[in-house]
Amino acid sequence: MSVMEISETLAAGRAAQELRLRRGEFELATQLGHVRTVGGALSGRRRVARGEVERLRRAAGFPDALRERVRTVGTAEGADLMDISPGRFTRLARAGYLVPVRFYLNRYRAVVWLYLAEELRAFAGAEPGLLTGRLPRTPTGGSGTTADGAEEKAGAGEDCRPRNWRGRRIGLLLHESDDRWERAAIVGSVLDPLQLAELVPDPYERASLNRLRPDLAPGRPGSEAGRETVQRLLTADDPDEISWHRSSLTALLADARRDRQAPRPNDTLPEPVGPPEPAPPSAPAPAPHPARTSVAAREAEPVPHGGRGRPLLTRLRIRRGRDREGAAVSRGGGADG
Q1: Which residues touch 79 (CB under 8 Å, ≥6 apart)?
Q2: How far apart are CA 247 and CA 261, in angstroms?
Q3: Which long-range contacts (CB under 8 A, 24 or more apart) does 292-300 make?
Q4: Which helix (H) or strand (E) holds 50?
Q5: φ/ψ of residue 164, rounded to 5
Q6: What 3-state DSSP class applies to 154?
Q7: Nearest residue to 72 via CA among 54, 96, 92, 99
Q8: Fewer CB within 10 Å: C terminus or N terminus of the chain?
């Protein structure tokens, strides 16, 4: 992003202030697409164009209308909005009819699910038959439950809320990103390390996915027990869900590999294949060395073993060379005289 483009955008904190949204409300508004952002979904901090802020500020009912679109409620307030009992609300949510948008751990490390108030009112208006009487055997709207029936699901203790939240969170993140490696990292983030290693055997590709791994639930608890609880919610555990994400990751990885290769260390790159480059003109090849080596050159030869001093054969060669040079000098002196 150029300097001019940055000057025409606002950081998240500044945009939230101008839109009169709290931090959590602003984050949810960007995730849901109510506030359009620019920049990398995972690899960089997203910013908001000034024109987008002005558009939202000119909208009717600002800022209350925008804040209402991202208002979240828990079980008690959600049941009150739908005019049903908290028990029935919980059964509808566990069966997969009501999809949470967020969660947090309370002081007792219990999971508290949050829902969009806007969606609960819309569901109550569209499905009045589900607000009274027995729940039907099959859900009516893509809840992720099987044909066993919503009543049996809730009664058997199966809870669709974690799975539905993971699916929703991944879908929102995929909507924000256009980078193929980022999209693969988003889907792979809900698979456990063994599943990921099986699907991505290349360690450099796994390292790239881990580097781009999104934070699905910001603000982790400080206690070990709390972190374990959150980690269970972040990891796919249903066989159908795992199979779906495995297939999605395989397809996304194929697209990412066609786009570009995962980063690798420079020393692992293959050596270029071809004839060696010729020596530069400024460094001509040395002249042929005479067949007879001088005594100084012989003395400079490395010792072929780690012992102290020269081997016997080397000492004999040096002595023989000295004798030959002395004889040559004597013959040369006689001729000159």
Answers
A1: 85, 86, 88, 89
A2: 20
A3: 294/321, 295/321, 295/322, 295/325
A4: helix 50-58
A5: -65, -35
A6: helix
A7: 99
A8: C
* d(C-alpha 314, C-alpha 323), whole Å: 14
The amino acid present at 124, given as its one-letter code, is A
Look at residues 334, 292, 336 and name the one whose alpha carbon lies nearest to residue 317.
Answer: 292
CA distance 74 to 244: 29
CA–CA distance, 214 with 31 (Å, rounded to integer): 13
Q: What CA–CA distance (Å, rounded) separates 235 from 96?
A: 18
CA distances to 67, 269, 271, 279, 283 from 276, in Å = 68, 18, 12, 9, 16
Written as one letter, the residue type at 264 is R
User: Contact 194/267 with Cβ under 8 angstroms?
Assistant: no
How is residue 110 annotated by DSSP? -
Let me know: does 84 contact 131? Beta carbons within 8 Å: yes
Q: How far apart are CA 30 and CA 70, in angstroms?
A: 10
Per-residue pLDDT of the chain (337 residues; tens, 9 = 90+): 454 455 689 999 999 999 999 999 999 999 899 999 887 545 457 899 999 999 999 999 999 999 999 999 999 999 999 999 999 999 999 999 999 999 999 988 899 999 999 999 999 999 999 999 888 654 444 444 433 444 444 445 689 999 999 999 999 999 888 899 999 999 999 999 999 999 999 999 999 999 999 989 877 777 888 889 999 999 999 999 999 999 999 999 999 999 999 998 874 444 444 444 444 444 444 443 433 333 333 333 333 334 444 444 455 555 666 666 555 544 554 444 4
Tokens describing residue 250: 């395989």
* Integer CA distances (angstroms), 145 to 81, 165, 240, 283, in order: 24, 13, 10, 77
* Whether this model's pTM surpasses 0.90: no
Upstream peptide bond of 193 is cis (omega within 30 degrees of 0): no
Cα gap 319→312, rounded to integer Å: 11
